[in-house]
Structures are given as C-alpha cells and as structure tokens.
C-alpha cells in the first residue's frame, strides 16, 4: 500500500471516513481477490493524483466484515465514495481508471 492510501479499520472508520472534511474513496477488498489486486494500482494512482482533494483508503473485508455488510457490499472489489458521512456513489469490479472515475463522478 502506498503512502497516499490509508488503511481503514473498524477502529478508525468513524474518524477517517464518516467525519472526514474531504470526500473519501474506500476500496473494500480482500487479499485473495484477484480483481482486487488488479485494480489496486488504479486506486493508488487516484490516491496520488487527488491527494489534495480526496482521502483514499482500503478496508479488508475479511478483517472488517461488519463494516462491509453495513454498506451492502456483496461483491469485491467494491469502491464506495463517501461525502459528509454518506455513501454517495459506488463501483463494483475491476475496470479501467477512466471507467472507475466516471462511475464515481471523479472525472476531471
């Protein structure tokens, strides 16, 4: 995980995601998930390019399944965009960066 990506856990979810001043992109993933590993470099690139305006974090669904269930995560990779503590957009599955940014409303 790059320095631009925050590890999100049950312990820091409230402060990091729900109380963030900036929008937060959460990558719900698992170590064993091939598509999750495929999309990881895209997530890290978004984190690096948007460090000023967006918090990007990864949440391991195997370790924090209750949080995944709370937001209706049924398939991974599930990328959720949170604004003002609310899940406002989501994308499921590995996809090219442009498609992911379009689904999440992050186009420049």
Verbal overview:
With 108 residues, this protein is α/β, with parallel strands linked by helices. It has one domain (5-104): Glutaredoxin (3-Layer(aba) Sandwich). It has helices at 13-18, 34-49, 65-70, 97-104; strands at residues 5-7, 24-29, 55-60, 78-83, 86-92. The protein has a five-stranded mixed beta sheet.
Topology record:
Blueprint lengths: L4 E3 L5 H6 L5 E6 L4 H16 L5 E6 L4 H6 L7 E6 L2 E7 L4 H8 L4
Parallel strand pairs: 1-3, 2-3
Antiparallel strand pairs: 2-4, 4-5
Features:
5-stranded mixed β-sheet; 4 helices; Glutaredoxin; 108 residues; alpha/beta
DSSP E strands, number: 5
What is the CATH architecture descriptor?
A: 3-Layer(aba) Sandwich
Please report which band the strand proportion falls in: under 5%, 5-15%, 15-25%, 25-35%, 35-45% or over 45%.
25-35%
Radius of gyration, Cα only, in angstroms? Answer: 12 Å
Q: For the report, how would you describe the main beta sheet?
A: 5 strands, mixed
């Amino acid at each position: 995980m790059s320095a631009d990506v925050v590890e999100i856990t049950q312990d820091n979810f409230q402060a990091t995601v729900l109380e963030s001043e900036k929008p937060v992109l959460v990558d719900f993933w698992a170590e064993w998930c091939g598509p999750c590993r495929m999309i990881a470099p895209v997530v890290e690139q978004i984190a690096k390019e948007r460090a000023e305006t967006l918090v990007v974090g990864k949440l391991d669904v195997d370790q924090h399944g209750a949080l995944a269930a709370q937001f209706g995560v049924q398939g991974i990779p599930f990328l959720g965009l949170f604004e003002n503590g609310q899940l406002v957009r989501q994308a499921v599955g590995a996809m090219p960066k442009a498609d992911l940014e379009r689904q999440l409303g992050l186009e420049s």
